[in-house]
Input
Amino acid sequence: MIALQPIFFTIGFFLTALAGMMIIPTVTDWVQGDYNWRPFAISALMTGFIGLLMTFSNRPSGPTTLTIRETFILTASTWLVVSLFAAIPFILTNTTGSNTDSFFEAISGLTTTGSTVIKGLDFTSHGILLWRALLQWFGGIGIIVMAFTVMPLLKIGGMQLFRSEFSDRSEKVMPRVSQIASAIVLTYLFLTMLCIGLLYAAGMTFLEAVCHGFSTLSTGGFSTSDASVAYFNSPLIEWIIIVFMFIGATTFVLFVKMIQGRPQAIWQDNQARLFIKVLIGCVTVMTLWRISKDIPASQALRESAFNILSIITTTGFTTADFTFWGTFPTMFFFILMMVGGCTGSTSGSIKILRYQIMFAVAKSHIYQIRRPHRIFPPTYENKPIPDAVSISVFTFFALYVASFGLLIMGLGLYDLDFSTTLSAAATALNNVGPGLGSTIGPSGTFTSLPDGAKWMLMAAMLLGRLEYITFLILFVPSFWRD
Output
């Protein structure tokens, strides 16, 4: 039998936390004299009542151990239920115009995808703008915790290797995983406050700084203006956001080590080091391309760096519509959607670690073909990669490709143009945000898409954020049999 009590207890805890977050936009709109404080207050009461009821009625009497099956159910159901309740403020304030759009905005926020269906952000209430940013910040810390606790346990996509690497090193820093988790949360909070302070000092209003600080570190991409970061027309603001997008896409435990006095931690990490090299290489290529089109060098560097980091870290901020830069940049950015940041960060997509494992296995296989009488075990950081990890990573890639193909065919049923169909599938599965083309590109929104297409994209956002297997295994009949 499936033990539902700890599952309901955990969901209730997260709903209670979500209700507490709703108080912030409630007070914000009340101070501003905006009538939207009432819908937020009602949302907080509804969510808090159900959350507390689930928490206290299912409180375990002693230590509880979840089975693997119950952990799968808990992970998927928590993200789904929290997303549904997060949509209530959008519904009650009639911000989006339909229930489908409200759910889309909430799921896009919590999964830190950043795709939006809201037009006229410059005239939207402060409470709604703050709520969108809070959802991304909340989802961002949830992603990090999931990467360090749940995914390694479920052995999904090579995450068990990440956990073993993390554990080997972290034991020298702190003796218990709970202490490490607390340190990561505090570091996440500290870096968020630092980002907010710098953006405010650079010229943003306090609300703008808070919203962009939350969205930047969570690599979410929700902005306070339809023009995104281009609205501010400030190189200083752009460079600050560039730095914190990089931080958000880098393994957070490395920043814990840096704060504890090991400033070289990032460069010593194999994954982070490759991530930095990929960023430098991509920015260099795009900068040279832009210079070849008679764009001033300083502008070419800034625009290339900002938009490349925004896409590769799956943040989704924009300062320019790169689809007008030419065919090569458009294809270049499309490929970058499938890269992602480091494991243990808030970024989405495939992530650097999985590419490293895949290429290590491929390299070993090629060497084995050349010299069949020798053994060439694949290695990562001079350690053999277990077969279970290799299988897990290639299973992840297989599910990714299959999901991508099925989603493209599903969206094709709605007669969307090729660019919109292809980029919508990519941006949803990789949790990036903007797509390509005039409809959902950097200058557009997802508002005009059919409701059926939006529901497909919502499922894809959750599928990508939950690393495929966690979501898809719930549809396997044998999973529910004892």
